[in-house]
Design a protein that fits this description.
The structure is a homodimer of 335-residue chains.
Chain A (H helix, E strand, L loop, with lengths): L5 H8 L3 H8 L7 H13 L6 H8 L4 E6 L5 H16 L3 E6 L4 H13 L4 E4 L12 H5 L4 E4 L9 E5 L1 H14 L5 E5 L5 H16 L9 E3 L4 H11 L8 E4 L2 H13 L9 E3 L5 H5 L6 E3 L2 H18 L8 E4 L2 E3 L5
Parallel strand pairs in A: 1-2, 1-3, 3-4, 4-5, 5-11, 6-7, 6-8, 8-9
Antiparallel strand pairs in A: 10-12
Helix pairs in contact in A: 1-2, 1-3, 5-13, 8-9, 10-11
Chain A binds a DNA duplex (16 and 16 nucleotides) through helix 2 and helix 4.
Amino acid sequence: MSRATIVDIAKELKISPSTVSRALRDHPDISKATKERVINVAKRLDYFPDSLAQGLKKRRTNTIGIIVPEIRHNFFASAISGIEDVTYKSDFTIMVCQSNEDYEREVINLRAMVSNRVAGLLVSLAQNTVDISHFDILQKRSIPVVFFDRSSEKINQNQVVVDDYQGAFDAVSHLIARGYQKIAHIRGPENISIGRDRYRGYLDALTKQGIPVNEKYIVNGGFRQDDGSIAIRKLLETSPIPDAVFAVNDPVAIGAYIVLKERNIQIPKEMALVGFSNDPVSALLEPALTTVSQPIYDIGKTAAKMLLEQIDNGEQTQKPIVKIYKTELIVRQSS
Amino acid sequence: MSRATIVDIAKELKISPSTVSRALRDHPDISKATKERVINVAKRLDYFPDSLAQGLKKRRTNTIGIIVPEIRHNFFASAISGIEDVTYKSDFTIMVCQSNEDYEREVINLRAMVSNRVAGLLVSLAQNTVDISHFDILQKRSIPVVFFDRSSEKINQNQVVVDDYQGAFDAVSHLIARGYQKIAHIRGPENISIGRDRYRGYLDALTKQGIPVNEKYIVNGGFRQDDGSIAIRKLLETSPIPDAVFAVNDPVAIGAYIVLKERNIQIPKEMALVGFSNDPVSALLEPALTTVSQPIYDIGKTAAKMLLEQIDNGEQTQKPIVKIYKTELIVRQSS
DNA sequence: ATGAAAGCGCTAACAG
DNA sequence: CTGTTAGCGCTTTCAT
């Protein structure tokens, strides 16, 4: 009843466990005849290799750890999906944790991953992660890691990100070209790369066109839908109210969108709205949301591929590779 | 440089490894003084417990396996999120695989999970899974499993599902009450519980009101958005075309919605539309989509809790528990 | 082409 | 309260 092991197979065939182990992994030293016999018995006994024992022995598993802020966010769900598609093909399994945008939880997740002896790690930072020293342990243990999307300038590791600055710059330039002048920005946290870079893009686009930056039109927020709803309410209290809003991402834009709808404020006539990330929802809204698209699924795939390469190459002390994807402005009715 | 082990700590303190092991796990036998010393050294040496070694020894890990059709589908992303929130609190980690709605891949995923010695498994079936004998291995090895949402009548295990029959019945009854007569249904696969039960609900609602079932109005499909687009095109070729459509789930309804919009067919005037699952998108459409809501996040949480209980209780040979959640019809503008 | 032996890091009797 | 010992299932030199 209890699980069959290599020893069971060996006994059954009156050969040694080492031979069975080799036969199972198709080692060239083993004769065809033996291999066949081993495989047959393995099947008959419902033998499943024990990844734990293998991992313990080989000092590495076939598990890739993933830490994301929120599994539910379409962006991360898609990225995970891309990652899984890649790792699946290479016989790796993914272990997923969500930080819930919380630093403490990120730290704990990381510890769990290390304890589980993941072969490598894919990370997107929580919005309130400032100190990143918890990742030092990865270098100490030469566990490869690739940061994707949400990184930090302090991170000195491989990264896959998009050109957030340019994407934001394009989005805001587009608003200006359309004639909007009082352009507000609902910001993301500054410690996170995407929050800061999109903010910079916003500022520079205004400045370049000689539009003065109005502090009242810059509202701090987070990355979630609720943050958008809260922020837009603040903006609606300014006077004069802005005629356009650039939100740090689509969930935030949607949060704003809902409030504007509730208050019967016409989009884009009374207020234009632009998001970032091209969430599938954004195309379905009415008016459809202008947004900046980023190749989410590919980002996941690329990050996973980079990681698998690092794992194959063993520890590499080269300087980190930073892969930057271009974004694309998708103009729809909301602007 | 290489990772510190319990033996390293033991040597450092000139005590035995077993004492260290016990101290680390706060075993009552160990004196406070010793515990403190151990913990200090552990910290200093960056000691991380090796989950593999622990798992090998204890013959069980703290990992919960999850197999879902698609991580990207909001329904599953939310369920996973709920699961993760529960397991996180109990110090379990989740290992996620997606079958991509493919039976073969489901089988392989399952093998990987078993090899990884997961403590338990949470499964939602792929749409083309008919034979379910691959799950027999779980019973043989007494690995607890809970099926959630997508199950099969052949499954004789714990389950967490919603009352799909009633939900569908309510939705179609609502359409009838609204005066629609030519009500079509975009079906899900029959082998999957939710596909079959929602279909039955549809049939019975019609029959009960004395509306004849029109085979032409029943289109087979899958669970994805594309399936909805394809199906609605077929329905638009019937004559007369239906005046209402009940789709097996929201992604399918949205696929239909997009095509109707493209063709400028007024919803609900020319054709009403009802979905199932209350995807966040459904509320944002215009007209907003009438749908049947199910407590997704709670389903995930409950399934996880049931699984953890089973894990705690060790193998239980009781008859399977089937937890059925009620659904709620959410009437919006599309009907 | 196959086997013997050691050991990955940890825990759990058992012994004291 | 602490130590000794054995072993979880597998891989991997080193022999033969």
